[in-house]
Amino acid sequence: MRRGWVVWLGCSLALVALAMPAWADRDLTENELRDEMNENRALAHYIERNGMPDLASARFLSDVGPWDDHEIALYYLDKRQEIGFARASILGRPEVQMERYRRPLTDEQVASLAARARQQPLDAPAAAPRGALGPVERSEESARRAEDAAMRVERAADAAERAADRAEAVTARMEQTFHSALKK
Fold first, then answer.
1. Domain spans, the chain
2. Dihedral sign, Cα of residue 20, residue 25, residue 29, residue 33
3. pLDDT digits (tens, 9 = 90+) for 142-159
4. DSSP-H helix ranges across 24-67
5. pTM across the whole model
């Protein structure tokens, strides 16, 4: 009996030890943060407006819906602020992307986070806001967008032309079948 309890306790501790990393905060690299920005528009817009944070981390949020399984926390040490972002699902799709909280950081938290930020800095500059681009860059960007739009219109016109050709072929076959049925 005693050995059964020891085995059960040992297995329980092993499972808890394996599950702990899933619940722990994990600092994000720059690439991981950019991947999260691609998934969460609210997070991306905030970083575009306010610049890259000093540190970003992912933490366990919920194992049941509607919330996603993790949230992203951004730390701006100069502003002494922590901002959390998460996604929630509607009808099974993660459509709601929002800022969940904004809280001030204490001096102890700032000191602890500064040490973590020095170990893995997010040095890449954020995407420049539209107003920060010079006239040459803005015109080049506009030309690129116009060229992309022209290519999309051209592909759509080609697809419409192919559909019209198929419709004409079907109509011709129907007309031929109709006339051959009249001759009988």
1. 22-127, 129-184
2. positive
3. 788 888 778 888 888 888
4. 30-39, 41-50
5. 0.53
